[in-house]
């Protein structure tokens, strides 16, 4: 058995090794990639981000950590190495840009490695006694000072997106702190972690404006709303995320505009839900049932945005304002807080759609 402290020590030693490798290989593809993505500041030794590079080769990290006094079993248990069929111990991460993952106590417990083209883009540490992807955040330790000073957390998908948000915030003194979940899933544990280390009552969700990004952002609403008074969403130009924006002309200005003008995430949830009902909105029953699905979401908007949203729904659904208002009031009466619409519900599975009389 290995103590958690020893496993964390191995991760910290690996993190130092990866960092040294990146700083020593400024002519390599990893450094060039960071510069291309507008993140050249990460190559400065003074950068708070512990971004590193896992060198190409079968056992560069293993050899280094053995010299540091770590046993083979520790390296395997920590998820830093694996055993081949021939019995050799080899590095799990090879030729990848490395991003440290932090647990709720801000311990380095694992890594996310980004490859160059031709391989799986991202590789996470395996589940270990100290690492679960859903219980870690990228950037939690690096953004600690900003979070404690009241910066608004901006939760994004990729590690480099978090770093792009951080760099823009520091350049413009905008008060944002970038953190990444490494994917489109946010767990209740991660939302709790974010809240426990933040002094802000607002959180901004920033996800790619693609087919997967919008529904993913909606799924985050419930958990984040448990901890933050305002849950907002920043919508990036189509085909872009924060780090890719920094590669484009005037990209920093476009990213700054997106983060400066977020809207309530519940509004995006309304748009996504309405889109799911689009094929049945030519029937009165479909329009009314769509209204009933989004009414609980309208109730989650800031008070000063409710009237405008009800007016918009009246126009989009071609329903009388009185009907829309009545359904909204009925929703408030049924419950002051409702969960998000179930993703499993499909508007086309209803076998007995209500007729106009029953719908009203």
Structural class: alpha/beta
Q: What's the CATH architecture name of the largest domain?
A: Alpha-Beta Complex
- H/E element order: HHEHHEEEEEHEHEHEHHEHHEHHHHH
Shape: elongated
Observed structural traits:
DNA primase DNAg catalytic core, N-terminal domain; 16 helices; Dna Topoisomerase Vi A Subunit, Chain: A, domain 2; 360 residues; alpha/beta; 3 domains
Quick rundown:
The protein is α/β, with parallel strands linked by helices and 360 residues long.
Describe this structure in words.
The chain is α/β, with parallel strands linked by helices. It has three domains: 4-129, Alpha-Beta Complex (DNA primase DNAg catalytic core, N-terminal domain); 144-261, Dna Topoisomerase Vi A Subunit, Chain: A, domain 2; 268-359, no CATH class. It has helices at 4-24, 29-36, 60-67, 72-77, 144-148, 159-172, 188-196, 213-219, 221-225, 242-245, 251-260, 265-276, 284-298, 303-316, 321-334, 356-359; strands spanning 52-54, 81-83, 89-91, 96-102, 108-115, 122-124, 152-156, 176-180, 202-207, 230-235, 263-264. The strands form three sheets. A five-stranded mixed beta sheet has the order 8-7-9-10-11. The relative contact order is 0.08.
């Amino acid at each position: 058995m290995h103590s958690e402290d020893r496993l964390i020590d191995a991760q910290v030693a690996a993190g130092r090794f990866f960092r040294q490798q990146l700083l020593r290989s400024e002519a390599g593809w990893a450094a060039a990639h960071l510069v291309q993505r507008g993140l050249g500041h990460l190559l400065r030794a003074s950068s708070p981000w512990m971004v590193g590079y896992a060198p190409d080769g079968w056992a560069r990290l293993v050899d280094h950590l053995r010299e540091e006094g770590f046993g083979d079993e520790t390296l395997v248990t920590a998820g830093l190495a694996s055993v081949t069929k021939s019995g050799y111990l080899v590095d799990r991460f090879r030729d990848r840009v490395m991003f440290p993952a932090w647990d709720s106590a801000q311990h380095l417990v694992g890594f996310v490695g980004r490859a160059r083209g031709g391989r799986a883009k991202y590789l996470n540490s395996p589940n270990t006694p100290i690492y679960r992807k859903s219980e870690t955040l990228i950037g939690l330790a690096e953004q600690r000072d900003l979070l404690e000073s009241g910066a608004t957390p901006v939760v994004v998908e990729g590690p480099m997106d978090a770093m792009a948000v951080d760099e823009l915030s520091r350049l413009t003194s905008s008060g944002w702190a970038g953190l990444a979940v490494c994917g489109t899933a946010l767990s209740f544990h991660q939302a709790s972690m974010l809240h426990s280390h933040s002094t802000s009552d607002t959180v901004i969700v920033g996800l790619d404006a693609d087919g997967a990004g919008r529904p993913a952002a909606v799924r985050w609403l419930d958990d984040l709303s448990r901890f933050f008074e305002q849950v907002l969403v920043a919508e990036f130009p189509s085909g872009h995320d924060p780090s890719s924006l920094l590669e484009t002309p005037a990209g920093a200005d476009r990213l700054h505009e997106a983060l400066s003008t977020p809207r309530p995430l519940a509004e995006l949830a309304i748009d996504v839900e309405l889109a799911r009902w689009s094929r049945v909105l030519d029937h009165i029953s479909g329009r009314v049932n769509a209204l009933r699905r989004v009414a609980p979401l309208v109730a989650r908007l800031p008070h000063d945005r409710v009237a405008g949203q009800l007016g918009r729904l009246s126009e989009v659904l071609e329903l009388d304002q009185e009907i829309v208002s009545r359904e909204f009031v009925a929703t408030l009466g049924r419950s002051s807080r409702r969960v998000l619409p179930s993703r499993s519900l499909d508007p086309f599975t209803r076998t007995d759609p209500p007729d106009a009389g029953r719908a009203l």
